């Protein structure tokens, strides 16, 4: 079988599997839009319709998207089942992160003045943007986006609430999964409910996070048992035994210095965790970087494995770049006029039998 025939066979098998989450009456239109988005340049709906040479009226495609002819959560769950079937890992590793989409419009859904925490050069600290929270699954050569949700402009539905809902929805498919999060999501409101559901957490935390050694047993002491022992301050951490390793992280060989200890986290209501402080060696400056702190709820993991697992979280950053630059997410709700003009061109071309290419709409 040739390479082209093999790719077509795999795509046909995967799309057929995804159709199990789509209602029967919407499957034909769904396949048309999906194949059109695969062939178009940026994944715009109008581009997808132009590529496939639609046979139905454009309102048919509008209804399936705008009126929710199928449930996106069911489709996301089916996609995760497909990933599990292709990559049968013992433990599914997921990533939870958020990204900002700068917008010129002030009336688009979810647009507000938001804090830009990436600290990029020549960019203000606060920008007019949308905030999207994404859950992705780790695969051998990258990550696969499973589902994204828009953070609303008002209300109590913040990023932590949305992240908890995204993970909770896929837990029946991936029980006991390992979740990789950054320091913003390392909060008790997110971590504790997930721990109660058997999720394993590895995430970065602030260096000044209140950590304590496990309390020493004192059988003759009256009253309730102590939850915390000696507090781990910077001087205590500096006295911990350090080990140096050469690891393959973030696509390159890096020399790291690790310190690790079993501790109790106060912000997690006394949960026992493994704390890992790591530093990278800069060969150019011949110095070590500032220590960073990782917390893992799996106390039996080696510090090197914890650092390696957390490094896999970086795969979601190139994914965000692809979503914004190549799949057109950065231009959402920016081309209403272009969309209207392109639809008029399509209607005229439909009458004359000419195909119209280009244009775009969300």
Assembly type: single chain
* Main sheet specs: 12 strands, mixed
What is the helical fraction, as a range of percent?
Answer: 25-40%
- The whole-number mean of residue pLDDT values reads 85
Query: Radius of gyration in whole Å, from Cα?
Result: 24 Å
- Ranges where pLDDT stays below 50 over 5 or more residues in a row are 358-362
Shape: elongated
Structural class of the helix and strand makeup? alpha+beta
Proportion of residues in β-strands = 15-25%
Number of helices: 11
**SSE succession:** HHHHHEEEEHEHEEHEEEEEHHH
Query: Cα distance, first to last residue?
Result: 37 Å
Query: How many beta-strand elements?
Result: 12
Q: How would the blueprint of this fold be written?
A:
Blueprint: H1 3-18, H2 27-39, H3 45-52, H4 58-66, H5 72-86, E1 93-102, E2 112-115, E3 126-139, E4 142-150, H6 159-170, E5 178-181, H7 188-196, E6 200-205, E7 211-212, H8 234-238, E8 243-249, E9 252-265, E10 271-282, E11 287-288, E12 292-296, H9 303-311, H10 316-325, H11 336-352
